[in-house]
Design a protein that fits this description.
The structure holds two protein chains of two kinds. By secondary structure, chain A is mainly α. Chain A has helices at residues 3-32, 40-58, 61-85, 90-108, 134-138, 143-161, 163-173, 175-180, 185-211, 223-233, 238-260, 267-271, 273-286, 289-295. In chain A, 72% of the residues lie in helices and 0% in strands.
Chain lengths: 308, 519
């Protein structure tokens, strides 16, 4: 394999992995606060359609991104009001959010189908992008790629090294104790949920502005669910999410290449590979209970209702 | 006391006419008391007397419906815990409010103000820990610590905020006698530094030993203020309960070797069943008919796992590890064990012994559907429940155990802890089991109900059944049992005769000393 082909393959893997990475990082913050938002798929697809539409209207892919982020955050706010203020069941509410997002995006995007999209341009960083091989790999990408890398490091630092991150983890571990210490549990959770929504919106915009710059109904195609699985796969640790996202990205790309090479494997089996990998990984990590319990936010999915 | 009397008495906190109403229940009804600087003040009362409600109002997690709180003679409205801390009120909770998945240092950091950098917290914590003789490892994960160590973390966390008033809620309920002694030394050091302590307890000897003054609560009202040193434990108890509790008639110690062995546990070992579970190590003991056998120990030393093994929630490697009336039952399920005449009552009332959202009659069926299928089920393989039979049993239990409830057949969740426990145990007594194994029979139960439950357990043993009681309450075990064995780190001590064993010996065994050292 020549270096050119290797670089090309890496670039396609990075493109497939970036939306998974961003959506999963957002959901990690949400789950670290003790909230399980199963609506990632719905928030992503809303981000995708909003990003595409805003870019069409304004003519700017960057304004499209911004709109997608705001849309994701607002859409997750709906989930926040229901599960946090009204203490509804998080699983049921999250699933409804996904269904609502898929339906609403289809309706909003009806007139976008078939329109040529606006692709987010790559930004070549001067000097760094001239470095052989690495320069092309890391420093001649689109804005969302750079954001995904910075976001990983920032979230790792935030969760494990800052006081605010400690507060976030404490709320996810034991909300009753956190409340007794005077931490505003619901405020922390609202912020986390909206951050997760913003990330999912951005991840969705990556699909409609970078990955395949167009709008098709249901274009997230299950990536929101993979992002959710990734959080568990990474046992709620940000750096492991990078490994997982790129692994799943690679599996997706391998599937296209195998089809192009005419490998005699049914395409349905190949496209189900990421999900099969997710299941295997879930089985593997759940065997080490101690590690899982150490990292798993103990109040995940439990509604918090303050004392009278 | 002497020191604080010589120094001028200076009032730190006063509570006037404080009232809190939940629905129709007056949890606190016009409560008055005050605390001076450098005083250890006891708040005495039974479970449900309103102690926790009062404390929550002092600490700002609940708002009073009436009355006022004076801090250094100035009225204050304590809106939230952070404001209480700002005033100088610190709190050590009864059910520790620690975060299991975080380290000791991280737990402490959370309660310090944001100006302390995270990197400095360990250092600061260890300094305070050394000063008051509270040894801890700041890097350890809290989920791995023992209950005593967790309490130390709580106390250090509280002390780092430099409070003037420290509230301790039932601090010794989970400690060995030796650990309690260490705690008292720490508290006395704090008093000598002029700090005030509000000490909430229902243990009379502790209050008498440690506290300068006491306020006694009953049914949400203050029934008296007193100086514990001038009272006797029984006069304090009478104030607390409002009536004298009848003493239990214990079975005479018969060392009749010919009695049938009902339960025999032989070389029972078991690996830990989960990350926070204790391994059982080579446990052997026999319980003859007519004996109440006690198992003491600090929580988390394998009692829960031993209960699971005996009840059949977890089966054994080797069927002969547990024998019930000469029948190896190690491979038998809970229902098979029940059918053979054994009965079990676990510690957790909700989710394990009973289901809160089911009616009492339905809850009776839960433990007796297999052992008394012919009474409660009809329709052959359809197994249709017979509500009339269940209700009849319920009314029998209600009468014999004196259960107080609203309505004829209410949901289990509507009963108070003590009344629900009477139903849970009553449904087992009602079967006249030849073996009853019960975990924490009177945990969180008021004194009157507890006395009744203990008497019923003794009556069952008198009628020829074997009874195994797992409890953290030494007084209860000494009162009821023929012999008492102690669990420590999954091992069981030699059983001790309850009539001759000293509390000190039991305390040492709880702390892990072997029987030879302890005796």
């Amino acid at each position: 394999m020549t270096p050119e082909i290797a670089i090309a393959i890496f670039l396609t893997i990075a493109t497939a992995a970036t939306p998974l990475l961003i959506a999963a990082l957002g959901e990690l913050v949400v789950e670290r606060s003790g909230v399980l938002n199963l609506g990632v798929e719905g928030m992503m697809v809303m981000g995708a359609v909003t990003g595409f539409g805003a870019a069409q209207i304004t003519g700017s892919a960057y304004l499209g991104l911004l709109a997608a982020i705001i849309c994701g955050a607002l859409f997750s706010l709906l989930f926040g009001v229901l599960t946090l203020s009204l203490a509804t069941n998080q699983v049921a509410t999250g699933l409804s959010l996904t269904l609502l997002g898929l339906g609403a995006s289809g309706m909003i995007g009806e007139n976008f189908i078939g329109l040529p999209g606006i692709k987010l341009k790559a930004i070549e960083i001067p000097l760094l992008s001239d470095i052989p091989v690495i320069g092309r790999l890391l420093f001649a990408q689109d804005l969302i790629f750079y954001i995904s890398i910075l976001l990983t490091i920032a979230i790792w630092y935030f969760v494990f090294k800052t006081r605010a991150g400690l507060t976030l983890r404490s709320v996810g571990d034991n909300h009753t104790s956190a409340h007794a210490l005077g931490i505003n549990v619901l405020k922390v959770r609202y912020l986390a949920v909206m951050f997760g929504g913003a990330c999912a919106g951005l991840a969705g915009a990556h699909l409609s502005l970078v990955y395949t710059p167009q709008w098709t109904e249901n274009m997230t195609a299950g990536r929101g669910w993979i992002a959710l699985a990734l959080v568990v796969f990474a046992s709620w640790r940000p750096l492991r999410i990078v490994a997982g996202a790129y692994l799943f990205g690679a599996v997706t790309i391998a599937q296209f290449h195998a089809q192009a090479q005419g490998v005699a494997i049914p395409s349905q089996l190949l496209s189900s590979l990421p999900y099969i990998a997710t299941i295997i990984v879930l089985v593997l990590i759940s065997t080490n209970k101690r590690m899982t319990m150490k990292n798993t936010p103990a109040s995940l999915g439990k509604p918090f209702v303050p004392d009278r | 006391m002497a020191a604080s009397e010589i120094a001028q008495r200076k009032q730190l906190l006063a509570v006037e006419n404080l009232t809190k109403v939940f629905g129709t229940l007056k949890a606190n009804d016009g409560v008055d008391f005050d605390i001076d600087e450098g005083e250890i003040h006891a708040l005495l009362g039974e479970n449900g007397a309103g102690k926790s409600t009062l404390v929550k109002m002092l600490f700002g997690t609940l708002q009073p419906d009436g009355g006022q709180i004076l801090w250094r003679s100035k009225p204050q409205i304590i809106t939230k815990p952070s404001f209480a801390r700002q005033l100088g009120i610190g709190m050590v909770f009864q059910h520790f409010s620690l975060f299991d998945s975080l380290s000791v240092a991280e737990n402490i950091a959370l309660s310090l103000d944001a100006s302390t950098p995270l990197s400095k917290v360990s250092e600061e914590a260890e300094r305070v820990a050394d000063k008051y003789g509270l040894s801890i490892n700041a890097e350890a994960m809290v989920g791995d610590l023992s209950v005593g160590e967790r309490q130390r973390v709580e106390i250090i966390r509280c002390l780092l905020q430099k409070p003037n008033l420290i509230i301790l809620d039932e601090p010794t309920s989970v400690l060995t006698p030796q650990e309690s002694d260490r705690l008292f030394e720490t508290l006395e050091t704090l008093r000598s530094e002029g700090k005030s302590i509000l000490y909430i307890s229902h243990k009379l000897d502790e209050v008498k030993r440690l506290c300068d003054r006491a306020t006694v609560l009953r049914h949400g009202k203050v029934v008296g203020h007193c100086i514990p040193a001038d009272e006797t434990p029984s006069s304090l108890a009478a104030m607390m309960v409002g009536e004298s509790i009848h003493t239990i008639r214990k079975v005479a110690d018969e060392t009749d070797k010919n009695r049938e062995i009902v339960l025999s546990v032989q070389n029972l070992s078991q690996k830990p069943t989960g990350p926070f579970s204790t391994a059982l190590k080579d446990i052997s003991f026999d319980v003859p008919a007519g004996e109440v056998f006690g198992i003491a120990g600090v929580a988390g030393n394998g009692q829960f796992e031993l209960f699971e093994a005996m009840s059949g929630e977890r089966m054994q490697k080797d069927a002969a590890m547990i024998t019930f009336r000469n029948d190896p039952i190690g491979h038998k399920s809970i229902n098979e064990r029940r059918k053979a005449g054994a009965a079990f009552s676990p510690e957790e009332r909700f989710g394990h012994a009973a289901i809160a959202t089911l009616s009492l009659a339905d809850n009776i069926l839960l433990s007796r559907h297999a052992s008394d299928a012919n009474v409660y089920l009809s329709g052959g393989i359809l197994k249709i429940a017979k509500p009339s039979a269940l209700r009849k049993t319920l009314s029998r239990i209600v009468e014999t155990m004196d259960v107080r409830k609203s309505g004829e057949n209410p949901d289990a969740g509507t009963l108070s802890g003590g009344n629900l426990q009477k139903v849970i145990l009553g449904r087992e007594f009602d079967r006249q089991p030849s073996l009853l194994i019960v975990d924490q029979p009177t945990w969180g139960v008021d004194a009157g109900a507890a006395a009744r439950i203990r008497q019923s357990l003794i009556d069952l043993s008198k009628s020829g059944s074997a009874v195994v009681v797992i409890s953290q309450d030494l007084d209860e075990l000494l009162e009821m049992c023929g012999r008492i064995a102690v669990m420590s780190e999954g091992q069981m001590s030699e059983p001790q005769q309850a009539s001759t064993v000293t509390r000190e010996t039991l305390g040492l065994l709880m702390g892990g000393a072997n029987a030879g050292q302890a005796a």
